[in-house]
Write a structure and sequence with these properties.
The complex is a heterodimer of chains A (155) and B (104).
Chain A lengths: L1 H23 L5 H5 L4 H5 L3 H9 L5 E2 L3 E4 L3 E4 L3 E7 L4 E8 L6 E7 L3 E9 L5 E9 L2 E13 L3
Parallel strand pairs in A: 1-9, 3-9
Antiparallel strand pairs in A: 2-4, 4-7, 5-6, 5-8, 8-9
Chain B lengths: L5 E7 L2 E7 L23 E8 L2 E8 L8 E7 L6 E8 L4 E7 L2
């Protein structure tokens, strides 16, 4: 355990210095550095803990205004195409969760001004499970889910 | 550093659709080497930032649960043909890559 912590610390400081160097070189804006990677949320092993770590609360409300597109059957769990689109007003972030994965939180996207609430990407799914899209709009989090049957797990 | 990222940005009406393909192993730290059986250490993109000029379009936080050689598509408004979309990523080892594409 102590050793594991040391690894994390080492990794963290390495990453920090590299980012520092990148800022120096004018590659990254300081804003990127402020958007710290929420380690607790990504390492969480269930949806509630992941949401608390990411958004501060595990509460979310199902909404039919979120259109979550994913295949019914994914033959290869290593590459599952996902598209999320919403007509919810004032959406500021879209997050993706594969509820059957060991670490369910897959990705989170913060939308800038003028960016449409639309994201398309590809994710890994370890087994047949619900894929959940979470959209933050105003102070609330809305969700949509879809079961994806996975033939060969990709984790 | 030569970037291996591919970006396409196309404008239709006033909406720009961006499609990006990055090159990265996206190891989540749980899979094993087929020959040696050793666990392959985690190595994945953690941060992705997309910009047009000084405006941040999208900030993505990723885990090793995003597929190898990640694909990302998004849409935005308020830009014109010829403006440049820039996408940069930083991975869990601190490596970065950046690429720009002109809006067509």
């Amino acid at each position: 355990m102590i050793d594991a912590k040391r690894r994390i610390l080492l990794k963290g400081s390495l990453a920090a210095s590299a980012i520092g160097a990148a800022i120096g070189a004018g590659l990254l804006s300081p804003r990127l550095v402020l958007a710290a990677w929420p380690e607790a949320a990504f390492n969480a092993q269930n949806l509630d803990d992941a949401l608390k770590g990411l958004l501060g609360s595990a509460a979310h409300e199902p909404s039919d205004k979120i259109d979550l597109k994913a295949p019914d059957i994914a033959e290869n769990g290593a590459v599952v195409p996902v598209t999320v689109e919403t007509t919810l007003e004032g959406a500021t972030s879209i997050s993706l969760v594969a509820s059957g994965n060991m670490m369910p939180l897959v990705a989170s996207f913060e939308l800038g001004k003028g960016t449409l609430p639309f994201i398309s990407t590809r994710v890994k799914m370890g087994k047949t499970a619900n894929l959940i899209a979470l959209v933050k709009a105003g102070d609330k989090v809305y969700s949509a889910s879809k079961e994806v049957k996975v033939t060969v797990g990709g984790c | 550093m030569a970037s291996q990222m591919k970006i396409k940005a196309k404008i239709k009406g006033d909406v720009v659709e961006v499609k990006a393909l990055m090159t990265h192993p996206m190891e989540n730290g749980m899979s094993k080497d087929k020959e040696s059986g050793a666990v392959i250490p985690a190595h994945f993109i953690q941060n992705v930032v997309a910009k047009v000029g000084d405006r941040t379009l999208l900030t993505a936080l990723w885990s090793g649960g995003v597929s190898k050689n990640p694909y990302l598509s998004f849409k935005f408004t308020g830009a014109a043909k010829g403006e440049k979309v820039e996408i940069s990523w930083t991975d869990s080892k601190g490596a970065t890559e950046s690429e720009t594409a002109e809006i067509e």
